[in-house]
Amino acid sequence: MPTKTMLVISDPPHGIVKEEIAASTIGLPANEARLKIGFGAPEILAAADPENAAEVTITLKAAGLRVEMRDSVGLRRIPWPTLVSAFDFADDVLRLSVQDGEVVEIPYSEPLLAVHCEPPVDFTPPADWAGLPPPGTAISGPGAADVLEWIPHLDLYYERDGEPWRFSIEGDTMVAVVDECRSRFTDLTLDARLDGVRPRRRFVPGEAGFDADQRKRYAFGTLLLRHALESVSPELRDLTQFELGSRLAYLLARRR
């Protein structure tokens, strides 16, 4: 029977950190550990068996970091985004148009987690980005995550029939949509820690410009992170930075 893998996830902002202890625990030089501690969005700091992951979690918390331990299975069970084709804030519900003409309605009384993903204003997608699908197109699955890799969007998570559902709204800026959600939903949890994050390219084996040095630990774009995600599920090994960050935000919010 395979060993269960637990993830130690950073849950910033942190307190006053004992940097030497933190650096030693996550296996980084002090200057690189300082950068990791200062990163404002959730990320994976360690992936290990339950006993070792628990030890890392306890040590990092004692060093002043906000961290949580989660079963990696939870990362796999999170649904892929469904990029809606249209949305409308009606009187009592948020109305979302999805694939095959289906309309999903989320009552404003429902508990809702909204994860705001938006690059900095000076960010430009790479020249090889395929761009958005035609207007009015609804996409779901890994393809939707790929479309959303470089652009502002809002991930909406809620429970439907006991299962997590996830829908994504994209646009030039999500500020107005976020404000509208705040004003209408009575039980809204907003995670805006991916607002202002400059998304990085995914690890591509053999491509110039990628540093396979595992001393960077589980930073996005490293071989070590790719291996850790692949051990959870092969379909997760190439997650985009916003997709990974959104999933981690959901994992952290579920047990608070």
Strand content: 25-35%
> Helix and strand string, N-terminal first?
EHHEHEHEEEEEEHEEHEHH
Q: What is the total tally of β strands? A: 12
Question: Low-confidence stretches at least 5 residues in length (pLDDT < 50)?
Answer: none
DSSP summary: helix tally: 8
Mean pLDDT: 91
Assign a percent range to the helix content: 25-40%
**How large, in whole angstroms, is the Cα Rg?**
19 Å
Task: Compute the separation of the termini in Å.
Answer: 30 Å
- Derived structural class: alpha+beta
Largest sheet: 6 strands, mixed
- Biggest sheet strand line-up: 9-4-11-10-8-12
Shape annotation:
globular
Write the layout of secondary structure elements.
Blueprint: E1 6-10, H1 19-26, H2 30-38, E2 44-48, H3 50-62, E3 67-71, H4 72-77, E4 82-83, E5 86-89, E6 93-97, E7 103-107, E8 112-118, E9 139-140, H5 142-147, E10 153-160, E11 163-170, H6 175-184, E12 188-195, H7 223-232, H8 241-254
Parallel strand pairs: 4-11, 8-12
Antiparallel strand pairs: 1-2, 1-3, 4-9, 5-6, 6-7, 8-10, 10-11
Helix pairs in contact: 1-2
